[in-house]
Design a protein that fits this description.
The complex is a heterodimer.
Chain A lengths: L5 E3 L2 E3 L3 E3 L8 H10 L3 E7 L13 E6 L2 E8 L8 H14 L4 E6 L5 H12 L5 E5 L13 H4 L2 H14 L4 E4 L8 H9 L4 E4 L3 E3 L3 E2 L4 E2 L10 E4 L4 H12 L9 E4 L5 H9 L4 E4 L1 H6 L4 H15 L27 E5 L9 H9 L4 E6 L2 E6 L9 H5 L6 E5 L16 H8 L1
Parallel strand pairs in A: 3-4, 3-16, 4-7, 7-8, 8-9, 9-10, 10-15, 15-16
Antiparallel strand pairs in A: 1-2, 5-6, 6-14, 11-14, 12-13, 17-20, 18-19
Helix pairs in contact in A: 3-5, 5-6, 8-10
Chain B lengths: L2 H10 L3 E2 L5 H7 L9 H8 L9 H5 L6 H9 L3 H11 L3 H7 L6 H4 L1 H6 L5 H13 L16 E5 L3 H12 L3 E5 L8 H4 L10 H10 L4 E4 L10 H7 L2 E4 L4 E3 L12 E3 H10 L8 E2 L1 E5 L3 H12 L4 E5 L11 H9 L3 E3 L2 E9 L2 E12 L5 E11 L2 E4 L3 E3 L29 E3 L10 H20 L1
Parallel strand pairs in B: 2-3, 2-5, 3-4, 5-17, 7-15, 9-10, 9-15, 10-11
Antiparallel strand pairs in B: 1-8, 6-16, 12-13, 13-14
The chains are: A alpha/beta, B alpha/beta.
């Protein structure tokens, strides 16, 4: 049985599955239910300054259904906690005391003023929480008030606030990054330079999930109009993986621990993020869709997979995919793979043909002899794009098969077909 | 009469009664056999469709409905568009969605069946789309072209005739349909099991077809009685014959005239037309002879009318039955007993009424021919229904055109008969006797007639 103990930035949790700062971690009641269900940690819903709490609107979520699958992507326009600071602190203190083995991180968002951060850290330190997550990511509502992603989009602010926090608390500081930027490395490096103990990413992506065609308004519709929200859920996983990978492989980020967030829905997603360098994993949409019980399979599935692979701890495979995440220019131009169709497994749906014929390289031959349909690859025309394999509804019916080759590894930079190399040759 | 004699007479009297059920049970037993899909289920089912290229299901549909396209439209809530895709090819797509043996046609060819024996529920999706359309105020999807001034006579307001008429009317021709019965719809109105055509759907479909305009139906006009083919040929620009079969096969036994021995098609027709099903006479012990869908429909319906014991006897095995596996299973779950490999040998009467029927066991001889084994058994019966097939009654045609070897009207690939301005289709011609085939025959003939009239 694999050991799922997760260690990140000096914090230990019994498993790497944490609930992200969001509605599921809004109060003691939910958090206790989550711990009871087996979650390794929670990032408490973002706390704001002392004083009157924010007020949320009614009608807060929108979602994308894809071919009948609900919640492929979720969008929200909720703000930070709308409960008084004292209430949150009191509950957090009690929760941490009652659940000492579970991680409790406090998410914070206050204006970019040194005293504001100093004050809040002092107050929250007393709860006994394990660390902080600076919410520089929230892309809606709070950003209009100069907080959240408004900070995360300015590297200098990230750097400044991180430094303040590191000065005013001894607890580990996670900086939560917004994906609503052009290059994730700029804010990540600013956080590293500011002394962050870890980064958390991605926060939600600016989004309009849909237009209500009757109301003629973005959803969620609030009395006839809508605002953009933050997008999360399975649909954003590829974006999150890419940004996590960028930071994991960046020498200037100095192997900063990463708490990965973004569409993590099952143990498979979890294993992928860990393989790409993530330390802990934060989940929100999957829990909002299915309830806290889903953590059971996340833990069990990850453990079983690790057993199958012979990994005893998370460290055994953490980051193993990072060295293989390269740029296009590093790829081998001499590698060649071709589609092979198993005619016995083929159910004659013709999806491979339609995809290849209409949108790719016309490399599949369609024959219909007295109603018996036969689809086969025209190997010479196949460029190995994988599209047919991707659209095929039958497992292992179309297999991409690498062509054996004794040609050397050759990048585009080395490729004689590269115009630069041709120019060199001439000169 | 002594008490003993009286009770003996009671015992011998056939046990046939109306009102065997509680009043509420009739509605329950004859309501829609399938629950229509709701939107959620329909969309989920539509997403099970792979939207195949060169989809095998289209080939399997006699009317070549573009099934992947209509299902894709359901998945995007373009349900009206889905209905149009269906009705463009098959104007009786709503009826066919209810009566087609889909498990033998489109759904049998579905690649999801090949993949995991889980075909897309094409029939139910087709019904979802067409029901949606019929419930709309703007259900009319078709327009007639400018009038051509031509008029075509159609014999029979069943699926073949209606399909032909609708396609001709769209082309701008006027159509007069002569129908022998008092109502239109053919077997959809008189022959299909009631629970497959619930809520008077057959008439709704006829109304929809007629709402296009250009089609007049003259009921109670039978060929050979009120009209003749020669007369119609003289009066109209073309004639389409879609009068169905008309004749019912007999057992060829003595005593077929006994009371209580009936043709299944006649009983089903009265069941379909009667206002109150509780008034129908129902035997306690019923035997149905035959292996086709009519036999199955008969057996299930009489069971659902309250018969205590219903036995369907077929002379061969399940594989040879005309009724699909699905229909056979449905009969069995309706508590119909199916007995195979026996043929009726003697009808036994008492006081002029059927009381029992004797069967001889059958088997195949070395040449694969069906023979009796010389062993017999007897089933007591208060009612016996014959459902051993129908035949085409060519007499009203007076030998004016050629009849095929199988005794039906001979036609070419376009449905044209040996008379140059007469076409035919549906059950009066050869081919599978299915509603969907009749619709296709009518459509094909209309195209050919249209071409003929354009010259």
């Amino acid at each position: 049985m694999a050991d799922l103990t997760c260690k990140i930035a000096g914090i230990t949790s019994p498993n790497p599955f944490w609930l992200a700062s969001a509605p599921p971690t809004d109060k003691e009641y939910n958090v206790v239910r989550a711990y009871e269900a087996g979650w390794g940690g929670v990032v408490w819903k973002t706390l704001g300054e002392e004083g009157p709490p924010v007020v949320n609107v009614s009608s807060r979520y929108g979602a994308i259904s894809y071919n009948g699958t609900k919640m492929a992507g979720l969008n929200n326009i909720e703000l930070i906690t709308d409960r008084p600071l004292e209430v949150n602190l009191e509950e957090m203190t009690r929760v941490k005391k009652n659940w000492p083995d579970r991680v409790l991180i406090a998410s914070l968002m206050v204006p970019c003023e040194e005293d504001a951060w100093k004050d809040i850290l002092k107050r929250v330190d007393e709860t006994g929480c394990d660390g902080y997550e600076l919410n520089f990511g929230c892309p809606h509502g709070m950003s209009e008030r100069g907080m959240g992603s408004a900070v995360g989009q300015v590297p200098e602010y990230i750097n400044m606030v991180t430094k303040w926090c590191k000065e005013y608390t001894k607890k580990p500081v996670f900086v939560k990054l917004t994906p609503n930027i052009t290059d994730i490395l700029i804010p990540a490096r600013a956080a590293v330079d500011g002394g962050a103990d870890a980064v958390s990413l991605i926060n939600t992506i600016n989004s309009i999930t849909s237009i209500d065609l009757d109301a003629m308004s973005p959803t969620p519709v609030v009395d006839g109009i809508g605002a953009h929200g933050g997008y999360c859920g399975p649909a954003v996983k590829p974006i999150a993986l890419c940004m996590v990978g960028e930071i994991a492989r960046d020498p200037e980020c100095k192997n900063i621990p990463i708490s990965a967030i973004g569409g993590i829905s099952n143990w498979h997603d979890a294993a992928e993020f860990i393989a790409l360098g993530a330390g802990s994993l934060q989940v929100c949409t999957a829990a909002m869709h299915h309830g806290f019980k889903i953590v059971e399979d996340m833990i069990d599935g990850l453990s079983n997979w690790m057993d199958d692979k012979g990994y005893k701890t998370l460290e055994d495979f953490r980051g193993l995919a990072v060295p293989n995440y390269k740029n296009w220019g590093d790829l081998n131009m001499n590698f060649e793979t071709k589609a092979v169709i198993d005619e016995d497994a083929c159910i004659q749906c013709g999806k491979c043909f339609a995809a290849c014929e209409d949108t790719s390289h016309q490399a599949i031959l369609a024959e219909n002899i007295n109603g018996e349909r036969k689809y086969s690859v025209i190997t010479d025309e196949c460029v190995g794009c994988n599209l047919c394999e991707l659209v095929c509804p039958v497992d292992d019916c179309i297999t991409m098969t690498p062509t054996p080759s004794d040609k050397p590894y050759m990048t585009w930079g080395e490729d004689p077909r590269n115009p630069i190399n041709q120019a060199k040759k001439v000169s | 009469m002594s008490d003993l004699a009286k009770s003996k007479a009671d015992e011998n009297r056939a046990d046939i009664e109306p009102r065997r059920l509680e009043t509420t049970e009739y509605e329950k037993n004859f309501c829609d056999v399938l629950t229509p899909l709701d939107r959620n289920t329909a969309v989920r089912e539509a997403n099970h469709c792979l939207f195949c290229y060169d989809a095998p299901c289209i080939d399997a549909c006699p009317t070549s409905i573009d099934i992947p396209s209509f299902i894709k439209k359901i998945s995007t809530d373009n349900v009206k568009g889905a209905a149009k895709t269906i009705l463009e090819q098959n104007i009786m797509g709503g009826g066919c969605a209810r009566v087609c043996p889909v498990e033998e046609l489109c759904e049998s060819a579905c690649v999801r069946k090949t993949q995991s024996n889980d075909p897309v529920k094409i029939g139910q999706l087709q019904r979802y789309a067409t029901d949606h359309l019929f419930a709309r105020d703007d259900a009319q999807l078709f327009e007639r072209k400018a009038s051509t001034g031509k008029t075509i006579a159609v014999i029979g307001a069943g699926p073949a005739g209606l399909s032909c008429a609708h396609n001709l009317s769209r082309e701008g021709h006027d159509v007069v349909i002569f129908e022998a019965r008092p109502k239109s719809g053919g077997l959809n109105e008189y022959g299909i099991a009631a629970y497959k055509m619930a809520n008077d759907f057959a008439q709704k479909e006829v109304d929809y077809i007629l709402s296009l305009g250009g089609i007049e139906i003259r009921h109670d006009h039978a060929l050979g009685q009120h009209i003749t083919l020669d007369g119609l040929r003289a009066e109209y620009d073309a004639v389409f014959l879609g009068m169905g079969m008309g004749g019912v096969n007999a057992l060829g036994l003595d005593n077929e005239g006994l009371e209580g021995v009936d043709n299944a098609v006649d009983y089903i027709a009265s069941l379909r037309q009667v206002d109150d099903k509780a008034t129908l006479p129902v035997g306690r012990r019923v035997v149905v002879i035959g292996g086709g869908n009519t036999a199955i429909d008969m057996a299930i319906q009489i069971k659902r009318l309250g018969a205590e014991d219903v036995t369907l006897v077929y002379r061969r095995g399940t594989d040879e039955m005309g009724a699909t596996d699905h229909e056979q299973e449905f009969a069995q779950t309706n508590d119909v007993r199916i007995k195979l490999w026996a043929k009726p040998s003697k009808l036994i009467g008492e006081n002029g009424h059927i009381s029992a029927i004797e069967f001889e066991y059958t088997k195949l001889d070395n040449n694969g021919r069906l023979i009796g084994t010389g062993e017999f058994y007897t089933l007591e019966a208060d009612m016996v229904f014959k459902a051993i097939g129908q035949n085409f009654d060519a007499a009203p045609l007076n030998g004016t055109l050629d009849i095929s070897a199988k005794g039906k009207i001979a036609v070419n690939d376009d449905g044209q008969t040996t008379l140059n301005n007469v076409w035919a289709g549906g059950d009066c011609t050869e081919g599978a006797d299915l509603t969907v085939v009749a619709v296709q025959d009518g459509k094909k003939a209309a195209a050919s007639i249209n071409k003929f009239l354009a010259v």
